[in-house]
């Protein structure tokens, strides 16, 4: 498995996800969104796996701060410009991806490897 966990250190769900992989001794790469956002290519791969609308955290502080609930906006442009708008954690394994804490899906990935 080639797992990539994308999130922030402050996010409780991201920490829980990291713990899941550590406890099972599954190697993973952590990408901190506060330091580096997703590239266009990475966003396209995640978008094709989970859908664009499900990537944006519409209940988060950043969404409210930018008043996006009142504005017509290009979702993809906003996600690339402001990585804090992404729901976390995003877990990638090749072309597959999940949003949030999804141990059942990750277990399926493990069994198929």
TrEMBL record:
Full protein name: Arsenate reductase-like glutaredoxin family protein
Species of the source: Anaerospora hongkongensis
InterPro entries attached to this UniProt entry: Arsenate_reductase-like, Thioredoxin-like_sf
PANTHER family in the record: ARSENATE REDUCTASE, PROTEIN YFFB
Transmembrane segments: none
Superkingdom of origin organism: Bacteria
Membership in a protein family: Belongs to the ArsC family.
Pfam families: ArsC
PROSITE patterns, per database record: ARSC
């Amino acid at each position: 498995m080639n797992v990539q966990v994308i999130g922030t250190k402050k996010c409780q769900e991201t920490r829980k996800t990291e713990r899941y992989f550590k406890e099972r001794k599954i190697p993973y790469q952590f990408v901190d969104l506060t330091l580096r956002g997703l590239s266009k290519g990475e966003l396209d791969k995640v978008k094709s796996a989970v859908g664009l609308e499900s990537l944006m955290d519409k209940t988060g502080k950043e969404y409210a701060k930018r008043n996006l609930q009142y504005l017509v906006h290009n979702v993809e442009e906003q996600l690339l410009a402001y990585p804090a708008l992404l729901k976390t954690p995003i877990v990638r394994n090749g072309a597959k991806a999940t949003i949030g804490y999804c141990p059942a899906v990750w277990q399926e990935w493990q069994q198929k490897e």
